[in-house]
Amino acid sequence: MNAPWKPSGNRDPFAAFMCDEAALDVLRPVVVEMGWQTEKCARGGLRNAVQSLSVAASPNILMVDLSESGDPLNDINALAEVCEPGTVVIAIGQVNDVRLYRDLLASGIHDYLLKPLSAGQLRDSLNQAQAVFAAPRTSDPTTAKRHISTAVVGTRGGVGASTLSTSLAWLFSTDHDLPTALLDLDVHFGTGALALDLEPGRGLTDAIDNPSRIDGLFIERAMIRANDNLAILSAEAPINAPLMTDGSAFVQLEEEFRQAFEMTVIDLPRNMLINFPHLLAEVNVVVLATEMTLASARDTIRILSWLKTNAAHVQTVVVANKVQPGATEISKADFEASIERALDFTVPFDLKSAANAAKLGQTFVEANRSSKASAALRQVADRVIGASDEAEMDDEPAKKSLLGSLALKSLLAKKGKKVAAPAD
């Protein structure tokens, strides 16, 4: 945590301030295992921590209980005022909320553990904290490598978002020679590993089940290598096993990817976008895959509106996929009028090339280097590579456009259908 300088003195390796004896009873044996003094485990929670550290040097690793805090984020700021730079802070609490978890991490907290505590949970978190403290510090933050995170979202099922995801990841890793992570978040039916002719492994399901275990070593062991620069994390979870997660694992994975890779590509199903909107917090570019149909026009409008409201920081690239000139349900002009923006790229329909890629067990662009569709995908990759770390902000307010709604209504009227303007 960043804090004002104060004389360092002799710093203890560890200290904890807990609100209840039950938590202390679980913590003390783990502290003994780590070789630290149990006397450094005190009662009193965050308030006592602030009072104690205002008159004494802060430890290397600090564990603090937020259970009695009415405003954890504000109180953490008070803690930062008395913590010395370099202190690794682990927070304990009983509020199971993804937004709070994300905000605490953004404030400088290393980890957030939920009560009731377990010895294994504490041990893992303390080992990770110790590794962070022991790691060499970057001397100049301006030399930190650039990282671009791209989420690929399909407006409808079958528009080819997964084909785009795997092709972009392959191009980043080969043509651009950039270390790339591919995260397939279709946990039950994802095709990322299949497209690369790989077994998905258990990495993603293990991460979802045990978010506290996610660190650099976990990433190295769990991800499956597709080539020297590309690694994939995916799953093929049993369809009788519902997805049970608060999304904290995905936040942790994105953080580790930023440290280990230069590019991240997330194959992000629409339902995951709805359920875990915080996944876009650190995303730079959203590639929105669509097709020239009435349903896709409607959902392109809805998702673009959602992005303006909930992720205004991202650059959005709209890609029309599987386009057959003269055989589309909606003309390009009508489609662009309905979504109130030009299509950034158009990828032609090429069934023969898609079948060839599937037979070879390769990504579309790898199997079909000279096809027109692959040329269009390379242009999409070039656009993403050129994206700045901070996406351009849209000057227009995020609101429903009357013009776009009227254009969509006009298309619907041509087909003899009645529908209300999208309310998203």
UniProtKB/TrEMBL annotation:
<dbReference type="GO" id="GO:0005524">
    <property type="term" value="F:ATP binding"/>
</dbReference>
<protein>
    <submittedName>
        <fullName>Pilus assembly protein CpaE</fullName>
    </submittedName>
</protein>
<dbReference type="InterPro" id="IPR011006">
    <property type="entry name" value="CheY-like_superfamily"/>
</dbReference>
<dbReference type="GO" id="GO:0016887">
    <property type="term" value="F:ATP hydrolysis activity"/>
</dbReference>
<dbReference type="GO" id="GO:0005829">
    <property type="term" value="C:cytosol"/>
</dbReference>
<dbReference type="GO" id="GO:0009898">
    <property type="term" value="C:cytoplasmic side of plasma membrane"/>
</dbReference>
<dbReference type="InterPro" id="IPR027417">
    <property type="entry name" value="P-loop_NTPase"/>
</dbReference>
<keyword id="KW-0547">Nucleotide-binding</keyword>
<dbReference type="InterPro" id="IPR050625">
    <property type="entry name" value="ParA/MinD_ATPase"/>
</dbReference>
<dbReference type="GO" id="GO:0051782">
    <property type="term" value="P:negative regulation of cell division"/>
</dbReference>
<keyword id="KW-0067">ATP-binding</keyword>
